Amino acid sequence: MSDKLTKKLFTLTPIETAQLTDHQSHDDLLSQLPFQIKKTNNIPVISQNLLNNKNIHINKHNRFCKYPLHSHTFTEINYVYHGSVNEIVNGQHITLKQGDFLLMDAGTSYSIDALDKNDILVNIIINNNTFSFESLIQIDRDYLKQVFLSNILSSNYLVFKAENTEDGLKTIANTMIEEYYFPSDFSKNILNHLSKIFFMLLYRNIDISSTNNNSDPDTRIIPTILKEIMNNYQTVNLIQLAEKYNYNKNYLSNLFKKNVGRTFSEVLIKKKLSESYKDIIAHPNKPIQQVILDHGFTNKTFFYKKFEAEYHIKPSKIKKSSSS
């Protein structure tokens, strides 16, 4: 770690000073210029439409007060530079330690417990026009692709533990942060290139130990099925894929659940909902009925029921807040 960067990150910000003094939250969500803040059911939704063509935004998370539940419309990485962090992500409690990374897709809801003086968390925000999860699945490494897609499609986030990742990942992250905080000649271009390398390293360091590393050659079909969901979620179905790849439908269904941990239908619906959510945020004037049709739903009642169960809010409230 660079001494200059460490000193910068441990130095109290004005918000940290205030929070340390009165132990009250000073809601730094509102200070995150270039982002627009909307509230849906009192849950802030941070959008990237004020990024001003920046590809990357980096900021230190302010310590000493709990960060409330919020969501966002962009890809975000939480990096524990020092200490440890407790978060609740999509209802799941996660503890991150020094050197850990949390990669979250758009639509993820999370809160962060108050950080102590020795806990340094850095947020790395990526412009969706620069990076998408879909861009990584072009790499032809089936087991990694399977783990990556199954986690993103079913949970919207991935955790990278320091003990399971190469040191180069932290080195690149630290270099990105330093280039951002202490810009010099070519820093913008360097950041753009480093961000691509960073995501390649993330992909390479996916921990596959938590999944079944089956030798069964049939498991090779799972990345293909996941990619079909990613690319063709509006129209794809299990019967169609079983016929296309010469599998018995029931066998393929069981194989999918065994390897991914969720049913084909659950993963497909999750993908449709995620894309619908992002569409509503990005296009607040678009009729909900059109969103439903564009993302492969055929039953309006079913869509509303699943959407509210997933995001704990009605689509109309997101639409209203995004257009206000």
From TrEMBL:
<dbReference type="InterPro" id="IPR018060">
    <property type="entry name" value="HTH_AraC"/>
</dbReference>
<dbReference type="Pfam" id="PF12833">
    <property type="entry name" value="HTH_18"/>
</dbReference>
<dbReference type="InterPro" id="IPR014710">
    <property type="entry name" value="RmlC-like_jellyroll"/>
</dbReference>
<keyword id="KW-0238">DNA-binding</keyword>
<dbReference type="GO" id="GO:0043565">
    <property type="term" value="F:sequence-specific DNA binding"/>
</dbReference>
<protein>
    <submittedName>
        <fullName>AraC-type DNA-binding domain-containing protein</fullName>
    </submittedName>
</protein>
<dbReference type="GO" id="GO:0003700">
    <property type="term" value="F:DNA-binding transcription factor activity"/>
</dbReference>
<feature type="domain" description="HTH araC/xylS-type">
    <location>
        <begin position="219"/>
        <end position="321"/>
    </location>
</feature>
<dbReference type="InterPro" id="IPR011051">
    <property type="entry name" value="RmlC_Cupin_sf"/>
</dbReference>
